[in-house]
Amino acid sequence: MININKNKNIGSVIYIVEGREEEPRIIREFYKTFLGYNVYQLNREDDIEMLKKENNKYSKVIIVTINKPQIKEIISDNIDKFYQEVFINKLNGIVDTESSAIYYIFDRDDKSNTKEDIEKAMNKYNNSRESSDYNSVHGLLLLSYPCIESLYLNCYKDKSSFSSSKEIKRYARENRLKKLNDKSFENAIKEMDRIIKTKFDIQISPSDLDAFEKVNIEILDKEDKIYNYYHKYVTLSLFMISLLDLEIITFSKEKIIDY
Fold first, then answer.
1. Which of 23, 72, 161, 173 is packed most tightly, with the most Cβ within 10 A?
2. Considering the entire predicted model, what is its pTM?
3. Per-residue confidence band for 231, with pLDDT thresholds at 50, 70 and 90
4. Cα separation of 36 and 125, whole Å?
5. Ramachandran region of residue 100, left (φ > 0), alpha (ψ -120 to 50) or beta?
6. DSSP at 258
């Protein structure tokens, strides 16, 4: 049985996203509309903006857009400058970034992200609250295949597959799949479960969230093999892993993904 814990105190949560439109829109939709948390958004060149204020002072969600959408940016030397500008200069006083859960939401775009860069990022960002070397900024990288619009299809249990971001964006728009509701939570988690277990033969346990790189790379390998053979990805967004990690979504059984 799936439980959605709308009153869960989650502390401060930071989402670093590559897109300026759909990624922030989806995160706002879940946290602002359905869950009722304090939500802020920071575009790199703008001041931080509060989008919704709720009484739960212990829970804050911050959405930060990154200028360059390539995954190599979060493993390059430029990331130190980004952390200084955003984490220290702009978020200081709003959240304690060291104790925040951090998620990097990116697309599996074979045109701009090499597999080598993705694997490096998965090994580096494998835990939302601790860094892999206990010395650098922490975070958990979560991909969408081929892009974030996959979450809309997962929410509608639409099993269509696509070869590019352009295709799925057009499909989601033409089929009006962007309107979400409370049922979307349950649909999205069940669809993610179905794909990971039946398509990829992977089981996720609670301990995997402490070091998610193994599962992350397994999913990447399976998706890339399918893409190389069929020239289409299995439509899947791992965004919902962040809600599992924060225990906003929980299960009555011991396995993290099981219904």
1. 23
2. 0.92
3. very high
4. 28
5. beta
6. -
